[in-house]
Amino acid sequence: MSSNKKYWKSVEELNENSSIVETLRNNEFVEEIPTDEFLADGSLSSSSTTRRDFLKYVGFTTAAATLAACEGPVHKSIPYVVQPDTIIPGVADYYATTMFDGFDFANLLIKTREGRPIKVENNRLAGAKFAANARVHASVLSLYDSLRLQNPKIDGKNASWSDVDAQVKASLAEAKASGKQVVLLTNTLASPSTERLVADFIAKNPTAKHVIYDSVSESAALDAFEAVYGERALADYDFSKANTIVSIGADFLGDWQGGGYDSSYAKGRVPQNGQMSKHFQFEANMTLSGAAADKRVAMTVADQKQALVKIYNVITGASVGTNKTAADAEIAKAAEQLKQAGSKGLLVCGIQDKNAQLLVFAINQVLKSEALATAGVRYTRKGNDAQVAQLIKDMTAGNVHTLIMSGVNPVYTLANGEAFGAALGKVKLSVSFTQREDETAAKSKIAAAAPHYLESWNDHVLTKGTYSLTQPTIRPLFNTKQFQEALMSWNGVSGNYYDYLRAGSAGFLGNASWNQTLHDGVAVYGGAGLAGGTADYAGAANALASSKSNGVELVLYTKTGMGDGQQANNPWLQEFPDPITRVSWDNYVTISQADAKEWKLENRLVANGGLNGSYVTLAINGAELKNVPVIVQPGQAKGTVGLAFGYGRKAALKEEMQVGVNAYALYKDFNNVQSVTVTPESGEHEFACVQSHKTLMGRGDIVKETTLEVFKTKDAEIWNPVPMVSLDHKETEATKVDLWESFDRSIGHHFNLSIDLNSCTGCGACVIACHAENNVPVVGKSEVRRSRDMHWLRIDRYYSSEETFAQDVEKKEGFDGLFGDKGSLGGFGQMENPSDNPQVVFQPIMCQHCNHAPCETVCPVAATSHGRQGQNQMAYNRCVGTRYCANNCPYKVRRFNWFLYNNNSEFDFHMNDDLGRMVVNPDVNVRSRGVMEKCSMCIQKTQLTILTAKREGRPVDVNEFETACSAACSTGSMVFGDVNNKESDVAKLAESNRMYHLLEHVGTKPNVFYHVKVRNN
């Protein structure tokens, strides 16, 4: 029974008209707090504000902030009317699928929650050989892009699919009757079902032809392979078979011929039984492959062609005349070691010249290279530059009646994109199947809304002998239609595309059933290998030897984060720091220090820690890019400059993502090397760079490295010494000194993460995987510039100050005194500048989960504490944002939420709209303003693994534990697990003599450990 009694705080409340009562009801404080007085300029000691008033104000604001932080938004939940049988709320489902967008490709598992795809994982079954790179991991966010094309459009207005079909069929009939040309312009399809539909379309329309266009061309390599082996494809090399690798301009750890070689390369780079592969790299731009090489030589592309002919002479015994280069000694050394390696040698080349690519096959065939002999055949690039050039001529002449495009954006990606856009006006009907109303769709008669690959059915033969399926993991979000469905309609084929591709799959399934292949995502139906072939190798060598440099060379390339620019509206990728330059939100001209001095160009750090750079204008045969920012890049070959594709887009992009310049404008004749004029301009560009300190400066306790010779012949105490500290005035090993009271860590699970510096390539897949798994916010360029990026995982990149890190150490140990050039101050000042051709090392850094964590000691509210399983845990509701923990962290891995990044129009990224928030992982909360956050070792994943095993009544499998970063690492550099399970991989790695802890002398006893980097000198 409720009470209706009324109570009064004072007699005054009986007077209904009392002004005092109203004041008490509406005000927290009866007297106004004189905040203006004590917050005004001047010293606090001279203020008239009393201590009592000051504490009143501080107490009120703290309470108000706490209440505001505790106040959460109200979300209404609508239950299922009929719950689907296959969905259990709170339990993730995984679907095997394949991603292929004409540029990137991978065999995947897609994690879904309550019908929402939220995470990309690697498919590790047999035959699924292509792992996800950073862009593929980010592709799940592109599904929820609010600027996707949601309906088909005719003349810029929403239309129905029946109207689109009617117009296309009428146009095809008219073209057929008049004998006019019909063209299908697509990216590389690599899909047997789609190619069959295209063939049927051409048979039904005799004037039709199919033109394949790759935005970043591999046409020269395709031409060479076709000349030698008789089909238009690429060799799929097996780098694990090679003991000596020579790369001439091929960034095979990046996007060279599609990439995907990092896993097989890494197998030979971890020293086993005193052996590891030797890697020579000859290149102009500093690349991931150059950073990983044992010996890197910076040279112009013209000199690279000479180097290739010189190596051809040594290997084959030919005597083709060549020009002298400054690196002849290094070229001869690489050629001799390659010859000695014989069948265990491999040469690859990235020069876009058919003659250069022919010499690759000539050299590897003479070597009888196992890496080539066991190579598969890739069908991931099939573009034909000559056919694309002819199409543009036909369109300009008005000879194309109907143009149907799918998966291409030539108005943006062609050097003469504007001319292509103008030529579209001469085409009777132009149709563009696209996910966004991009530059080409905006100029086309019909913009046909295409689905995302996570909404689609398809099949792919990425390599000969493997068959991969793409299956939808969510119902289409918008009114979209696949290009294949449209082809079926125009071909008069009834049914849906799923039935069509299933009916045609029998010849590709091998011994597997359809259901098994759909479950696994891939089937193996044949073997791989390249039979011998031949071509005019001598003629190719002579043609290549005559090449000469013609002024400054512009070397165009694709960045690890942005690729060819298809996902330019993806904020995860825009904020992803480039592994080499550590710059996000931009592309730029990379210039050597020598050329920068000559042209009076510079980079400088400003007061807030931001990086500024000069501007230049690039000009090629009348085409210009004005005000391109400059990065002075260590390792850039003198006489060359680099520029990345994928930027400078405007159409279908949010304003924040409209950054950089369009390098495709200088991509003349699909040649990524151009003779360029560089003109300095006035002004300064503001970069968002996350690592301003470039060199290691002799800090051998951060990155430990040694040579293979020392590693094999010396004890670990020599090349992996334990740091020494003073105890009772005696030198003592740091691991034996402890200021903390330890507890027994041998009971239950205890998690460790192992990171091998030898196999880490700096690719950044782990960074984006962590973004997706842990709801890491995007903060934008201006905040990154203020060092407020929120990445839980960073990959530090260090250059050597001298030619090698070993020479850095020698210089440091040679310091004499404090002052002067040979003293510590002067010496370290010099070591801040990287070498013109430095050695490079990548080091992933996340919360080290210290067993003796200094952050836990200083937190006044116990928001950060240590778990029994070894994880340093964060209680976000306790955190009041003192940031003491960040100040005390020796690894600087904590991130403070300066602002509310979720549902805030000031940060207009995916967390600011309902569609973008569909990617949020419900197992990890979205943090609010004013709290500290950092890596949790994916505690939600470890606990799920434990609970799953408990529910199934079994122990956890030996290597079942994973984090987002370890699962994403395709090279095996990151290994996570339970060190208390002595059979686990991480426990065995913890016993390795290469193992060391970061800053071990500090005594924090981390649960993350590293392995000494070994270089094959």
Automatic annotation (TrEMBL):
<dbReference type="InterPro" id="IPR030948">
    <property type="entry name" value="TAT_var_transloc_signal_dom"/>
</dbReference>
<feature type="domain" description="4Fe-4S ferredoxin-type">
    <location>
        <begin position="870"/>
        <end position="899"/>
    </location>
</feature>
<feature type="domain" description="4Fe-4S ferredoxin-type">
    <location>
        <begin position="751"/>
        <end position="781"/>
    </location>
</feature>
<protein>
    <submittedName>
        <fullName>4Fe-4S dicluster domain-containing protein</fullName>
    </submittedName>
</protein>
<feature type="domain" description="4Fe-4S ferredoxin-type">
    <location>
        <begin position="838"/>
        <end position="869"/>
    </location>
</feature>
<dbReference type="Pfam" id="PF13247">
    <property type="entry name" value="Fer4_11"/>
</dbReference>
<dbReference type="InterPro" id="IPR019546">
    <property type="entry name" value="TAT_signal_bac_arc"/>
</dbReference>
<dbReference type="InterPro" id="IPR017896">
    <property type="entry name" value="4Fe4S_Fe-S-bd"/>
</dbReference>
